From TrEMBL, chain A:
<keyword id="KW-1133">Transmembrane helix</keyword>
<feature type="transmembrane region" description="Helical">
    <location>
        <begin position="79"/>
        <end position="97"/>
    </location>
</feature>
<protein>
    <submittedName>
        <fullName>YeeE/YedE family protein</fullName>
    </submittedName>
</protein>
<feature type="transmembrane region" description="Helical">
    <location>
        <begin position="156"/>
        <end position="177"/>
    </location>
</feature>
<feature type="transmembrane region" description="Helical">
    <location>
        <begin position="20"/>
        <end position="38"/>
    </location>
</feature>
<keyword id="KW-0812">Transmembrane</keyword>
<keyword id="KW-1003">Cell membrane</keyword>
<keyword id="KW-0997">Cell inner membrane</keyword>
<feature type="transmembrane region" description="Helical">
    <location>
        <begin position="118"/>
        <end position="136"/>
    </location>
</feature>
UniProtKB/TrEMBL annotation, chain B:
<feature type="transmembrane region" description="Helical">
    <location>
        <begin position="156"/>
        <end position="173"/>
    </location>
</feature>
<feature type="transmembrane region" description="Helical">
    <location>
        <begin position="108"/>
        <end position="127"/>
    </location>
</feature>
<keyword id="KW-1133">Transmembrane helix</keyword>
<protein>
    <submittedName>
        <fullName>YeeE/YedE family protein</fullName>
    </submittedName>
</protein>
<keyword id="KW-0812">Transmembrane</keyword>
<feature type="transmembrane region" description="Helical">
    <location>
        <begin position="6"/>
        <end position="22"/>
    </location>
</feature>
<dbReference type="InterPro" id="IPR007272">
    <property type="entry name" value="Sulf_transp_TsuA/YedE"/>
</dbReference>
<dbReference type="Pfam" id="PF04143">
    <property type="entry name" value="Sulf_transp"/>
</dbReference>
<feature type="transmembrane region" description="Helical">
    <location>
        <begin position="74"/>
        <end position="96"/>
    </location>
</feature>
Length: 180, 185
């Protein structure tokens, strides 16, 4: 585990928050989300609502309006959508303050395994994005909504999600990063 | 004033979440990939601590009548299939949906490209929803069940076991990381 950590340390040396402190912070943020807003932390539900905006020019706004999924989940500027808008704002602030903002076209780990091709990385990111969001909607949540919010409620669905997600992730990673 | 709070409240919550994700380095594709390669345990440390700390607090809030549970449906086949796709997508993309948004804001252009993929994925799901609903969502649909309900083991015991298990696991991870650092000098 060490060689990668050393290579990575240049980018992350100015962030010295313990992962346990960050995790505890997210846990406490969950208390506020439950008690003050009645809405657990989550990302992909709002993402789906916003996606209908992008679908309209592709399949037509009539088709979007008639779609049974978006009928159950119409675009509205609710808690989840504003929460989603807040995430990049907070991350940007942290990146600027900690001096870790930098342009990244191909991440280091990817470069070591698949080379420096920007095109290759962009195609993989795009395809991976399709798969992850389809999976998130099918499962009914993501690492935040299922993993953290559902996990901390001891929900059966969320612990099944966590177990299967990590198992397939480990398997996919083994195949992708096998020694050629 | 109220409308300001309806926007400012969630916006602030999201910003704190994004700030924490960035400070926790989980907006880095390298950190996420190396978690699945078992070379960096940051993701599990963050998630495990969030679940234990968050869960104990939410349990107390529920017990004192200050909130209720918002449990997702246990459509077991759909959750299993969706989670499997999610795991594959997370390794290929290098992010999960929330950390991707943080990564875009900290300069990762490939994360932004993948975000367009996520939009396409959401559209594809909406287009296939009628079929999925008829054939997958209703398979082994157990409803909004919690582990204490189906096992009869009370919440307190679950969190005690989770806290001890996570503590032991993190202790083991920290000692092997310290050993690896010493070996490297």
């Amino acid at each position: 585990m060490t060689d990668v950590m050393v290579k990575d340390s240049r980018k992350s040396k100015r962030i010295d928050w313990s992962p346990y402190l960050v995790g505890a912070g997210i846990g406490i943020l969950s208390w506020v989300a439950f008690a003050a807003f009645g809405d657990p932390l989550g990302v992909t539900t709002a993402f789906s609502r916003i996606a209908s905006l992008f679908a309209a020019p592709v399949i037509g706004s009539d088709a979007v309006a008639a779609n049974s999924y978006w009928k159950s989940m119409p675009l509205k500027w609710d808690y989840g959508v504003w929460f989603l808008v807040g995430i990049p704002l907070g991350a940007f602030l942290s990146a600027i303050i900690s001096g870790t903002w930098r342009l990244e076209l191909v991440p280091e780990v990817w470069k070591q395994r698949f080379g420096p091709s920007v095109f290759k990385r962009f195609v993989a990111a795009f395809l991976g994005g399709i798969v992850i969001m389809y999976g998130a909607r099918l499962a009914g949540g993501c690492t935040s909504g299922h993993g953290i919010s559902g996990g901390l409620q001891l929900a059966l669905s969320s612990w099944l999600f966590l177990a299967v997600m990590f198992a397939t992730g480990l398997l996919a990673s083994r195949i992708m990063f096998r020694k050629a | 004033m109220t409308s300001l709070m309806i926007i400012a409240g969630p916006l602030l919550m999201g910003a704190v979440f994004g700030y924490l994700l960035q400070q926790g380095k989980v907006t880095s594709c390298n950190v996420i990939e190396n978690q699945f390669r078992l070379r960096d345990f940051t993701v599990l440390k963050v998630m495990g601590t969030a679940i234990v700390v968050g869960g104990i607090g939410v349990l107390l809030l529920v017990d004192t009548g200050n909130t209720k549970y918002y449990v997702k449906d246990a459509n077991m086949l759909a959750v299993a299939l969706g989670a499997a796709l999610f795991g594959i997508g997370m390794v290929v993309y290098g992010y999960c949906p929330g950390t991707a948004l943080g990564a875009i804001a900290s300069g990762s252009v490939h994360a932004a490209v993948g975000a367009f993929g996520m939009i396409v994925g959401a559209i594809l799901y909406a287009l296939s929803f009628d079929w999925v609903k008829a054939h997958i969502l209703n398979v082994w649909a157990l409803g909004k069940v919690r582990l204490p309900d189906i096992t009869g083991v009370p919440d307190g015991a679950w969190f005690a076991a989770l806290a001890i298990g996570a503590g032991a696991f993190f202790f083991w991870v920290e000692s092997s990381e310290a050993k690896a650092r010493r070996a490297q000098g």
